[in-house]
From TrEMBL:
<feature type="transmembrane region" description="Helical">
    <location>
        <begin position="280"/>
        <end position="299"/>
    </location>
</feature>
<dbReference type="InterPro" id="IPR002528">
    <property type="entry name" value="MATE_fam"/>
</dbReference>
<feature type="transmembrane region" description="Helical">
    <location>
        <begin position="390"/>
        <end position="409"/>
    </location>
</feature>
<feature type="transmembrane region" description="Helical">
    <location>
        <begin position="19"/>
        <end position="40"/>
    </location>
</feature>
<dbReference type="InterPro" id="IPR044644">
    <property type="entry name" value="DinF-like"/>
</dbReference>
<feature type="transmembrane region" description="Helical">
    <location>
        <begin position="139"/>
        <end position="163"/>
    </location>
</feature>
<feature type="transmembrane region" description="Helical">
    <location>
        <begin position="175"/>
        <end position="197"/>
    </location>
</feature>
<keyword id="KW-0812">Transmembrane</keyword>
<feature type="transmembrane region" description="Helical">
    <location>
        <begin position="361"/>
        <end position="383"/>
    </location>
</feature>
<feature type="transmembrane region" description="Helical">
    <location>
        <begin position="209"/>
        <end position="228"/>
    </location>
</feature>
<keyword id="KW-0472">Membrane</keyword>
<dbReference type="Pfam" id="PF01554">
    <property type="entry name" value="MatE"/>
</dbReference>
<feature type="transmembrane region" description="Helical">
    <location>
        <begin position="97"/>
        <end position="119"/>
    </location>
</feature>
<feature type="transmembrane region" description="Helical">
    <location>
        <begin position="415"/>
        <end position="437"/>
    </location>
</feature>
<feature type="transmembrane region" description="Helical">
    <location>
        <begin position="249"/>
        <end position="268"/>
    </location>
</feature>
<feature type="transmembrane region" description="Helical">
    <location>
        <begin position="52"/>
        <end position="76"/>
    </location>
</feature>
<comment type="similarity">
    <text>Belongs to the multi antimicrobial extrusion (MATE) (TC 2.A.66.1) family.</text>
</comment>
Amino acid sequence: MPAASIDAPIRPVPVSHRIVIGIAAPMTLAHLSTPLLGLVDTAVIGQIGSEALLGAVALNALLFDFLFWGFGFLRMGTAGLTAQAVGADDRLEQRAVFLRALVMAGVLGLAMVALQRAIAAVAFPLLGASPEVTHAAEVYFAIRIWSAPFAFANYAVLGWLIGLGRTTTGLLLQIGINVVNILLCILFTLGMGWGVAGTAWATTLAETTGVVAGLAVVIAHFGGNLGVPRSLVFDRAKFVRMIAINRDIMLRTFALLAAFVFFGRQGALAGDVTLAANAILNNFFLVGGYFLDGIATAAEQLSGRSIGANNRPSFEKAVRYSVIWSLGLAIGMSAVLFAAGGAFIDFMTTSTSVRELARQFLPYAAVTPIAGALAFTFDGVYVGATWNAAMRNLMAVALACYFGLWWLLQPLGNHGLWLALIGFLVARGAGQGLAYFRLLPGSFSGIQTKAA
């Protein structure tokens, strides 16, 4: 973000450990609730006793995670721009940012609906399921794909709430979506006998309900007045900036996805036992990531708000506190995995060979929270500060380091793969940490002496 004008006022932005945790805790719970949509579908379909239907739900969970997760930039980009508008005390721009994000969500969601046949034609042959599973999966897909505009709109709503610092409201909306999904899934699938189509309709209608509730929250926040001049909503420079920010976050996200797809593929090439062991251990990292994402959310909101307020001391304090909490949580999670990881492995599989191999590589998985702590935190800082081009470029460098390390460590087999992944996480955090000191001065103007 360009520095504010030389005479831009420095507005106060309160930053404390309590504020950081107050933002992070609800979002951690919201992140942990995210997998529930897929889990509920699986649990309800499991009551029917059809392996083909279970396979169809699992297949679509994988497919929609890939399709929708790639558009998570709508949440992150909206959060950063909203936080900056809050810091600048510009309520009109707060409304305009939300409406721009909503327009973008609608356009992208409808484009995905329009391309559904092309997506299905490419995706299902690649997934390689049996004809029976594929047929059921296609039924689910044809219904669930219509939720794309609503799912993306929910990203915009959640990002906007994060930008305001209203993460508890975001959590309540996520809980509401999950409750509606559970109730409708039971009604449609078990009560009305719609099978896999029932689970698809339940999730689609739950996402739709979330948008309606989210819009009600936004309108209520502004006292019923969401009116923004059309010229401001579609201001060329601001719309181009939002598109550029979201483009950079999207490229960063797909690069991150590529890293984990590569990790999974290399595990698969090493054999079924290695694949299963790595999958179990990777879940430990993903769960740890939900907690670190909560701190990253706090860093997003507070750093973005400090940028908007032209308050460098608050920005630096927010970064410092977020790093402290992220590292503290990471150390705690690593300690838990070292102490109880074996028990978690036994709970997740009954295969003796998988248990033994997973225990062998457990130390690598146990240190991933520490290795990735800075990367998670600085992702939040960079999103809040809208340093998205730098984040994109640093991700590309870290990805190159990952592939380079893997190539060098191939003789070590799966040990080398895990070491390359840890190196990737460290490279991301270290690169962003070093670039932070170069980017910081250009985002503020004037003499920054006001206390946070």
